[in-house]
Amino acid sequence: MLVVWEVESGEVRGSYFGHSNAVRTLAFHPGGELLVSGSDDASVKLWNLTARNPMIIKGPSAGLAFSPDGKLLTSGSSIWSTLDGKLLAGTGGRTRQGKPAFSSDGKYIANGRSILDSRNVLELLIVGNEVESWVGSPYGPYGVSFSPNRKALAIGTGTLGPGAVKLCDATTGKVVQTLTGHTNPVWDVAFSPDGRYVASASGSWGPLQKGGPGEARLWEVDTGKAIQIHPQSHCLYSISFNRDGLRYAAGGGFYAAVDKLITDRGEIKVWDTRSGQEVLSVTNLRSCVYSVALSPDGKRLVAAVGPFGESGPFDVKLWNVETGREILTLGRHGMKVYAVAFSPDGKRIASGGTDDIIKIWSID
């Protein structure tokens, strides 16, 4: 770990994780905003010192979402202020699995099983009377997404065997369209910002937790057709569009892989929505990637990776989508990170996982 202090105040400006061995050399850029380090792990890293220590919120999270105005953060069953970390609604306790979603007007939250009032997280609607039979599991759907006009809700379904994307009426909970074709469960879904497309991430986590194969699909909502199909060797757990919908990203890997000899445990992909061309490919990661998020401009991607595998800590990292390079390690969680999210203005990142700590990082 690297620690940077401000000379005048003596306060810690930032703590930076990423090297796996002793750091032997350090040098500042003349502007003072960049720091380069060399380590016995045979790596040289460049650190952006404008990323300060995060706001800490004590609370579990299997998924996180910012409100459209960036002032609120939800786990799907609790809401916190992003200004001071105060719990505004809910208990702040254990939440259901899966990524929640805010409606475009910020009034509602979906968590895969229910639609909630964002002011008090009171349940307004059970999403569909047959939710259990959709999923074949008591855990319910994992990923959900509101359409931009808030009229529809996309839900990924399945646990073992073929999954599907269910498009539900967000006012009645009734299924109005089912997108089929995935041969494995659908773990996450996302509407494009213009509502024309739905992207989905699927894969087999397998009875032996082998974590593959997986697949990302881009569906045309009007026709129900899959216009892009991207097979992957790993199970994909997360999918995300950027603000203009021109790019979408997915992440996945081996879920709690038991074979210690496996070094390729995780991957990250980004595709162009118009052409289907692969824009970014990050492979041979040391752990599964459970959540990815693109910055609003689509130029950066955030994800968390366990440098020592599934059982150790996870580092929250940023990649430059244009160059494919890892550009910044924001910091570390003590255990797996299941959730990352960009704020709408791109200046903050939220992360949370099984250490029951949520962190909001400032990257401006």
Describe the structure.
The two termini are 21 Å apart. The chain is built from 1 helix and 33 strands. Mean pLDDT is 85; it is low at 7-13 and 128-137. A 4-stranded antiparallel β-sheet has the order 6-33-32-31, with no helix packed on it. The protein is mostly beta strands.
Summarize the structure.
With 364 residues, the chain is an all-beta fold. The protein has one helix spanning 131-135, and strands at 2-5, 12-16, 23-28, 34-39, 44-48, 55-58, 65-66, 72-74, 79-81, 87-89, 101-102, 108-110, 114-117, 123-126, 144-146, 152-157, 164-169, 175-180, 186-191, 197-203, 214-220, 225-232, 235-241, 247-253, 266-272, 278-285, 292-294, 300-305, 314-320, 326-333, 337-342, 348-353, 357-362.
List the helices and strands and how they pair.
Elements: E1 2-5, E2 12-16, E3 23-28, E4 34-39, E5 44-48, E6 55-58, E7 65-66, E8 72-74, E9 79-81, E10 87-89, E11 101-102, E12 108-110, E13 114-117, E14 123-126, H1 131-135, E15 144-146, E16 152-157, E17 164-169, E18 175-180, E19 186-191, E20 197-203, E21 214-220, E22 225-232, E23 235-241, E24 247-253, E25 266-272, E26 278-285, E27 292-294, E28 300-305, E29 314-320, E30 326-333, E31 337-342, E32 348-353, E33 357-362
Antiparallel strand pairs: 1-2, 3-4, 4-5, 6-33, 7-8, 8-9, 9-10, 11-12, 12-13, 13-14, 15-16, 16-17, 17-18, 19-20, 20-21, 21-22, 23-24, 24-25, 25-26, 27-28, 28-29, 29-30, 31-32, 32-33
